[in-house]
Amino acid sequence: MYEKNLTMLADFYEFTMMQGYFLNGMHKQVAVFDLFFRKNPFDNGFSITAGLEQAIEYIKNLKFSEVDLDFLRQKGIFREEFLEYLENFKFTGDVYAIPEGTVVFPHEPLMRITAPIIEAQLLESALLNIINHQSLIATKAVRVVNAGAGDKIMEFGIRRAQGPDAAIYGSRAAMIGGCASTSNVEAARRFDLPLSGTMAHSWVMSFTDELSAFREYAKLYPDSFILLIDTYNTLESGMPNALKVFSELRDAGATPHLYGVRLDSGDLGYLSKCVRAMLDEAGFTDAIISASSDLDEYLIANLKAEGAKITHWGVGTKLITSTDCPAFGGVYKLAAEIDEGGSVAHKIKLSENPDKITNPGIKTVFRLYDRKTGKVKADLISLHDEVIDTEKDLTIFDPVSTWLRMTLKGGEYFIKDLLVPIFINGECVYSSPSVMEIAEFSKQDQLTLWDENRRLFNPNLLPIDLSEKLFNLKLEMIFEFDVK
Amino acid sequence: MYEKNLTMLADFYEFTMMQGYFLNGMHKQVAVFDLFFRKNPFDNGFSITAGLEQAIEYIKNLKFSEVDLDFLRQKGIFREEFLEYLENFKFTGDVYAIPEGTVVFPHEPLMRITAPIIEAQLLESALLNIINHQSLIATKAVRVVNAGAGDKIMEFGIRRAQGPDAAIYGSRAAMIGGCASTSNVEAARRFDLPLSGTMAHSWVMSFTDELSAFREYAKLYPDSFILLIDTYNTLESGMPNALKVFSELRDAGATPHLYGVRLDSGDLGYLSKCVRAMLDEAGFTDAIISASSDLDEYLIANLKAEGAKITHWGVGTKLITSTDCPAFGGVYKLAAEIDEGGSVAHKIKLSENPDKITNPGIKTVFRLYDRKTGKVKADLISLHDEVIDTEKDLTIFDPVSTWLRMTLKGGEYFIKDLLVPIFINGECVYSSPSVMEIAEFSKQDQLTLWDENRRLFNPNLLPIDLSEKLFNLKLEMIFEFDVK
After folding, report:
1. What value of ipTM does the predicted structure carry?
2. I need a surface site. Which of B49, B115, B216, B292 has the fewest CB within 10 A?
3. Tens digits of per-residue pLDDT, B87-106?
4. DSSP-derived secondary structure for A68-90
5. Among A416, A221, A132, which Cα is nearest to B79's?
6. How far is A94 from chain B (nearest CA, A)?
7. Exposed/middle/buried for A256, CB within 10 Å: 0-12, 13-18, 19+?
């Protein structure tokens, strides 16, 4: 088993700030933090949020041990009264979040934490770590799966993942993104995922000859076996030996559920065509061809376009590390403070870069769907207590190019509030679906997008707007600072 | 605390192959596997090996639980006798490895595992995961540290790391690579690392004004405080307020050990020069300027070249994910088998790509140093039982361009066998140094390189050759396959 407590997975400044709030008597001041990102990775048309289950576990398990407190004590800057506070630390706030697998867009709060500032501050780095990682890999997986256009994508990344967690949670996220299976036994055990695998070169090399290696493997796993045919020479040794074994099994009346070969080097396009022809000629039209070797969505799309005869793709390094964009830029920003009487002070972070100016206030995200097609028309980031009457016309506008306007006719659209309650007053009120349920939900949710939004390159971008009320609040706050 | 067992962190094919070896009665056959890589990441002139301590823990903790075995049983393809074998699984073999922090090169065995093939096969994916990750981040850190040219590099990556382990072990590896400190409290606690941190925008925003936020922080941590000055406007708000606080403290007679400001947005080069001038003019010549914001070795080198006045660099995303090359391509390949009488069968994996042909046999790495300067002349990958008489001349040659030859004069060089025993007959015989000891060792080891090898771009590459005996063995084996 694999249990852990990540209470100390925090940046040091979180502790110095927490003590600051504590000693200044500010620690009970309620703060609202948003966890959001500013840009889709890979210039994708959307992202997939993932990691909420682990974020929940993290919050539930928050507890400082004596070892933790001793470590902090030794730093010589923390007062005993603050360490005592930590000893009894418990998260008492509210968390709202967008469920895992949901299609999400820049600037939308994926999580909204409302809690005494001393508590909310502690959560920053760990929540970002968890959500950033899994959202990144889930989004990458969606791209690889879409490039496969119905083929099976097998997640093969343990050996190149950035540490054990990156392999385990990366595999989880890859399944949320639509992979058909993983080779990661620990991830499969923990999250009940479909497993797949073939054989390694060492299996072939540990026999005196390739034919014996293939024969023994097929004998052991007659219902499902994939022979790795490139240890010595794919077309001149691997294929003839594989065909011999397939023939022997056919002669013996075997009817495997899944059998075939794996290509792991050489030109996968060319080899797959040769191999397909050899298999078909020998009557093994149902034998599958799988491939691995530095694959990603770009190479898979290319190979498919040139007619490669591969239907099962083992994707390792470039999926599990998200090679061409290995970080999801989620941030955690203060949006409001609530005083004891319940009145809200909006907070904004300014910047010379307009995209880095935060959206103030307690917010939610309304997704607007076309009633006829069920497709998404736009998202509207709004103040959390705004009410939209869907029987009335709704005019929305781009928050940068404000002349870009769209009116949804009353009665022709419906809305969904994306944020759902996860913790209320420190109690978890949410039960995470299984990973395969999340994957199915995500698949359906992606179908509410238009094909144009799902393109690999240069996708059409849906309007992600601010409600008029939020837009005006933001402008006012920016002007107010300018005047100072 | 944070305890874990990674026994099931394996690719599924490892279990199907293990059962294959077991049922074929091959499982006691002793195999020799090499863990090596084929290319330095970032086109660096060398790499740093790291992660051995975690690899050792992993091997020591190997133990299948009932839950693990039940999971495998449910797959319906594993026989009870094999599951019983797993129940009593224990690693009984030998492991040799190159100690952490050592400068290493492509094709050198970083680890050599000699064990019954069924045991050695299980270790493949987890060892690769651990060594690949930490070696990658340690090597990246060396580059960032070298770009800093004596400045302090602070590791700030938790929030963008690929999961909790990537943050924790990534921080460990970054320190091995020469970072001065980390912001990661869990990593610091676990590995006794120097911590550093400043403040977040939320601290500043949670006060009614910036000046109060700065003043309170400085009052709390008078010995060491860095003020984040970009929440509203770096030069027009942050700096005047910071100077006010510095002056107040000076007037009160305070003598902080470390104080200064942090830039986190805008043009760091320009701002740092303005800020330095403002600090100096006010007499705060000892105040430091730190910076963060998507930094990496390229940007740091550039900023330093243009005269930026930054001496403390907080490096997050691009170090902890190794953005421009997020995977270290380590592989685990069968090199030999040893029968009960002790005779060795060499194993080779062929490929159309010459760089992918493995080096057969039980090998070690001799590092050849110039006696006068102590600098490395070359590495020689050799069969493990070769003896080099350093009193005699030694001629070495490039294994590809064999006409490239170099003769080391007898008496003018000395050698070091890089691989040291870690496990013997399943017992760990090695005690890992502390992370900071490894970091110091690595710093010294890097000084045995020439400046030309350590360049950020287009470094000079040291000769990494094969011994004549190993070269001839490899050629013979390639020709032998050709004839077949």
Report:
1. 0.96
2. B216
3. 999 999 999 999 999 999 99
4. HHHHHHHTS---HHHHHHHHT--
5. A221
6. 18
7. middle
